[in-house]
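Supplementary Text 2. Reproducibility record for the structural model of the 541-residue chain.

All settings were left at their defaults, and a single model was retained for analysis rather than an ensemble. We include the record here because the model underlies the residue-level annotations in Supplementary Table 4.
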Amino acid sequence: MQNEIFQKAQVAGFFGKLFYYAQLSGPGWIQAAVTLGGGTLVGALYLGVVGGYQFLWLQPLAMLCGIIMLSAISYVTLSKDDIEDRPFELAKKHVSPVLAWGWLVATIIADVVFCAAQFALGADAIQGNLGGAHLPPFLITGLLFIVAFFLIYLFSGKGKAARVIDSVIKILVSIIVLAFMGVVIVLMWNNAVNWSELLGGLIPDFSALFKPTESYAESIGAAGNYSGFWNDYISESQRNIIIGAFGTAVGINMTFLLPYSLMKKKWEKKHRELSRFDLVLGLLIPFILGASALIISTASQFHAKKDGYVSEAAYHQVLDERLKAEHSNFATLDDGKVAQLRQAAPQVDKDLSVMLAKRNANDLAKALKPFLGNWSQLIFGIGILAMALSTMLVHMMMNGYAVSEAFGQPGKRRLFLIGAVIPAIAGFFSPLIWNGAAKTALAVPASVIATTLLPIAYLIFLLLMNSKKALSEELPKKRFLVNTLMIGATGIATFASIWALLGKYRSANIYDHQFGIVGLIGLPLLALIGIVGFMRREAKV
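Retained model, structure tokens:
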């Protein structure tokens, strides 16, 4: 059946290909499931708060850079017929064993740490949005563990059972997109969306790297002696969001997963065009729709609004930064004095603190209640639970492939399941480990490792796409265009990584600072190892 559909696509026009390839897609949807997770949720919510509609261009452009690199990964994977020439082995053989193993280890660390975050996100959706406030946290994470592991067990097998997870992931990603798009449609129906600003937000504006958006100009001007503080605070927030989005649209573990999901589908050289369509249909379009819907919803309710709904803790977090700029001893003051200073702060500072406070999905659901009624919590609860479940499934899947690859038996069922259950165990204990000091102890080194090695993963495939030893007659014919696109995407990811590592290096937190140093030293060192190793291997007769 699938061969028949594929043959029809070969003789069809562009729209015919879309129709037929959509029926065959799968790996792209799996990629969408992992990127439409907690990180995208938090990023999109804050984009809407700080930049409003002006940042609608950002995440699509960031994902487009990721699509370029994932397309290269699929090209390398599908150009080789021998299972022994899978990308991990090619990287060891033609680039550097150090880089290849670093890529694999970084994938495992990212999967284990950030799968715990998805369990925490799912528990939060059940407790905060879906009426499960009184349910014990470990009961929730235990149920999520059982459901996720059962689906992964089906996936690890063969035949129809193995294809179940493809359908489940497509359904979960569709639920995410439809839930958040539904909210936007309701807002548009109620004239709560500024169309001119929305359309203007689709045009890239890199000046936001250096100055606040115009929405804050009046309030910043009214801040008097502290207008400089607010100008710097907003500019830095915007800059961090922009650079972070370009660095994390595609995670390190996503680059490791794609080859194995392609091999699981038994795609070959003839499927290279299908793989490109699959990334657009399954990853790019759902990501753009889901992330954009979150930005639009948040912007409509919170951006530059001094009367927007905000939690007290998030409001105080911003206001306290402003008070620290005025009172050097602020951190040493007792609670009573802190409360007095907060109360006595100028109204313009209070207003800007409301405008810039971070919001979560629960805040957005409450703010949208006038438009959605009691459905607001249910809609967001279902959307976020689907987000968490789909992402934890793919983290488990990625870890299964990484662990089985580490033992030289990629996809072998027993090793795959052992690898897959490790992140789920971390997820089960997320009420303990994704909280307070334990969360910092895990998240900081994991994020530094992933940030450092993402450009290295890109570099591996940039080199492989130019390796005569690895690809021989399968070297891309339009090498100049391919290299231009890949160098651009790798350069952007490298810049974003260096910026993030510099932020940790400058941090007052000793652990952030130390890990930042390690990352800033490790990134150029690993790049040098990879380039030198590649050149030596290519030069060998």
